[in-house]
Write a structure and sequence with these properties.
The complex is a heterodimer of chains A (268) and B (271). Chain A is mainly α. Chain A has helices at 2-16, 19-46, 48-51, 55-72, 81-91, 94-99, 104-134, 143-173, 178-191, 203-210, 215-225, 231-262. The mean pLDDT of chain A is 87. The model of chain B has no long low-confidence stretch (mean pLDDT 86). Classes of the chains: A mainly alpha (268), B mainly alpha (271).
Chain lengths: 268, 271
């Protein structure tokens, strides 16, 4: 646990160096939030029934998705496992990571949690705050929804990390993962509900999305925040997220265990 | 006058030989081209899916059908690719100043601009061109639009003007790095703005935003104004749409002035 805390601290310290960068990312976030707000306002005016929820709830859903995306875009953080692993493999420095007396997945998790917590505090929270102040973003309908949202975001992170880690494992097997990463990011963009709310898809596609883990990353927390779910559904949503998180994390753990044994480091 | 002509011919020759050199290097990586094509489709796929789903459910977006939107999106990609194929190095001026490699250009007896753009041709940008044309053609058939020769000629002119506009905006942003170190930041903000104008008609935005992308950072002349005239949308008066080539020329003039001023002002980072 202490090693874990040390990793966390180091990452936070590294991030602190780039304050100016944070300010900029906040501006991008605001522009993108303004974009989706305009989009849904126009679509709501065209056909409110099709949107299926009050305008404020819809724009809040879309803007919060953009705000979360600053940190939750699969390769947004340099410490995301697939970014980190492919960088280290390319430069041949991965051996130093393997020498450390801590499992690779644990190390990466600690690093990634560090940057994620820091980025959420410095980017997502300010973007959310600006959204509430200037762009008419709603607050959650009650304490339970607010708290549920926070827990849900943490679980989203666990799922995203685990998926990213699985992708990172592929980086060991192939040297050119650019296209793979793009395909993966594209799938998450389309199926997580951040760009297109899942209820707008054709029924057969909604059925497919329901059995995949991706919607747990964005749709679940956003639906909780905007009050689109009942109290009971908050609990079932969080439970499903937790199950996916644990299953995917363990899958990464097992896969890494198998790969580690077969790994040979090029004599960089 | 004759002297200037000679100089111009000399420049063209230099650019040609620089291109030849880079082509030779690039041809060794043909597999890259196919991988890039896959990347471009993947990168833009999510947006195309989004536009399709929205127009399927809501029939249109601010009066634009799915066909219109694909033309809007495709035209942007084609114009943008002119920049990404031939001029993408212009976006790297800031890096070159930082690392000190920019000084190298100033020492050689050829225009620094030519060395900059001739130094690299990114032929994977051709994938954007291809996908852009694919989208425009699909969009046209979906919208059932019929273009005569007049429309096609204007389309070509719009694409070229669009290319010049992107190159100039990107170049101007880079030139800012002669004065401050914040050019990268400006570039990224520009990116966020054009990401919106690339896929949505600007009529869905507020007045301030429309003024911004028309008069200040005129990215709307890349695709919105051209597409709204070509597709017969009532969103903008025809004369404004046809102003695209004029905007391109004015920007080019401004860019060349700023570039000269910047070079005069430049002192090396001492790398």
């Amino acid at each position: 646990m202490r090693t874990f805390a040390a990793f966390l601290k180091t990452e936070q310290r590294c991030m602190g160096l780039y304050r100016a960068d944070f300010f900029l990312k906040l501006i991008y976030g605001m522009i993108a939030m303004y974009g989706v707000r305009s989009l849904w306002t126009v679509l709501y005016a065209q056909d409110p029934a099709m949107v299926g929820r009050p305008l404020a709830s819809m724009t809040t859903y879309a803007m919060l998705a953009v705000a979360l995306d600053i940190v939750f875009y699969p390769s947004a953080l340099s410490t995301a496992p697939q970014n980190y692993i492919s960088g280290q493999v390319r430069t041949g420095r991965i051996d130093t990571d393997l020498l450390r007396p801590m499992d690779l997945q644990g190390q990466l998790f600690a690093r990634n949690v560090g940057t994620a917590v820091f980025s959420i505090l410095w980017l997502v929270v300010p973007a959310w705050f600006m959204g509430v102040l200037f762009l008419g973003m709603m607050l959650p309908p009650g304490f339970l929804w607010g708290a549920g949202f926070v827990v849900s975001v943490a679980l989203s992170f666990l799922i995203l990390f685990s998926l990213n880690f699985l992708l990172g494992m592929v980086c060991f097997a192939t040297t050119n993962i650019k296209q793979l990463t793009m395909a993966y990011s594209g799938i998450i963009t389309i199926l997580s509900g951040k760009l297109i709310p899942n209820w707008l898809y054709p029924d057969w596609m909604q059925a497919v999305i329901r059995v995949l883990p991706f919607r747990c990353i964005f749709e679940t927390p956003l639906n909780i925040y905007t009050g689109a779910v009942t109290e009971r559904e908050i609990w079932s949503g969080l439970l499903l997220q937790a199950v996916w998180g644990v299953v995917l994390f363990l899958a990464g753990h097992l896969l890494w265990g198998r790969m580690h044994r077969h790994l040979t480091v090029q004599g960089g | 006058m004759k002297n200037q002509m000679d100089e111009f011919k000399f420049h063209i020759k230099i650019y040609g030989s620089l291109l030849k050199m880079t082509m030779r290097g690039i041809l060794q990586y043909r597999a890259d081209f196919w991988m890039s094509l896959v990347s471009v489709v993947l990168l833009n796929g999510a947006n195309i899916v989004q536009l399709s789903v929205i127009t399927w459910r809501f029939h249109a977006l601010g009066g634009w059908s799915v066909g219109d939107l694909l033309v809007l999106y495709g035209m942007f990609m084609i114009s943008w690719s002119i920049f990404s194929i031939f001029f993408h190095k212009l976006a790297k001026i800031e890096e070159e100043i930082w690392s000190g490699t920019f000084d190298m250009y100033l020492l050689r007896p050829v225009s620094p601009f030519l060395q900059l753009v001739g130094g690299d041709i990114n032929y994977t940008g051709l994938c954007d061109t291809l996908m852009g044309f694919g989208l425009v053609i699909t969009g046209l058939s979906l919208a059932g639009a019929e273009w005569g020769l007049w429309h096609i000629l204007w389309f070509c002119l719009f694409i070229l003007s669009g290319g010049v506009i992107v190159v100039c905006i990107r170049f101007l942003i880079s030139c800012v790095s002669f004065w401050t170190t914040k050019a990268g930041a400006l570039g990224s903000i520009f990116t966020q703005i054009y990401l919106l104008t690339q896929k949505y008609p600007i009529t869905i935005f507020g007045r301030a935003f429309r003024v911004l992308v028309t008069g200040i950072v005129p990215v709307a002349f890349l695709n919105f104004y051209p597409a709204s005239w070509l597709m017969g949308k009532p969103d903008a008066p025809a004369w404004l749409c046809m102003l695209s080539p004029v905007v391109a020329l004015v920007l080019a003039g401004i860019a060349s002035l700023v570039w000269r001023q910047g070079l005069r002002r430049y002192d090396s980072s001492g790398g």
